[in-house]
Amino acid sequence: MALSLHINGVQLERGGRSLFPPLTVSTGAGTLLYVRGANGAGKTTLLRALAGLASPSAGEVAWRQDGNPTTAAAATTFVGHANAMNDALSVIENLSYATSLAGQIYRPVLVGAALEQLGVFNLALRRVGTLSQGQRKRASLARLLLREQPGARAWLLDEPFVALDVDTQKMLEQLIAQELKAGAIVVLTSHQDFAIDSAKTTEVLL
């Protein structure tokens, strides 16, 4: 199963003002799409549009699975810099909810393996509000691994390396590289330097 992304003449607005000129880019399986730009250029807004959480003022975002149209909800997992976790719920409850929102079946073994891989398995029953910023970030990143198989969903990552220590950043770089090799599309923004082994990289400057 191969995903492809087609951004056709997309424009996004903030306060009635276009954030960038019409953007057109197409990319396929195994591609790292690196979105660059100054603060306020529209990077986060673009990722939200790719995830189906914001509507373009012009143009179209189209996801396709094996050449057939599919929804952003079915095609993507979006992890923003805000973590999007409820402080009053435990880590495991947050991940259960995220799985449901993604239209996937909740599999405890898969969730446990994801938490183990991110080094936060021992925090599964802790309320998110009691965690450090780095622990919250790693728990949030565990959502990326709740897919049916490697490469099955596109990863949309907004500043994914913020609040991560050096070792965890390297781990995330390796996870991204592995997902790309499995055929995923990974779209990311970052103000931090990173080293990701990618056979295909496309840069978009907003």
Report mean pLDDT, rounded to a whole number: 92
CATH superfamily: P-loop containing nucleotide triphosphate hydrolases
State the domain count: 1
Residue runs with pLDDT of under 50 for 5 or more positions: none
What is the CATH top level name?
Alpha Beta
Instruction: Note the gap between the termini.
Output: 30 Å
- CATH architecture, by name, is 3-Layer(aba) Sandwich
Shape: globular
Q: What helical percentage do the residues reach? A: 25-40%
Describe what this molecule looks like in 3D.
The chain has 206 residues and is α/β, with parallel strands linked by helices. Helix content is 28%, strand content 26%. The chain has six helices and eleven strands. It starts with a strand and ends with a strand.
What structural keywords apply?
single chain; 206 residues; alpha/beta; Rossmann fold; five-stranded parallel sheet; four-stranded antiparallel sheet; 6 helices; 11 strands; 28% helix; globular
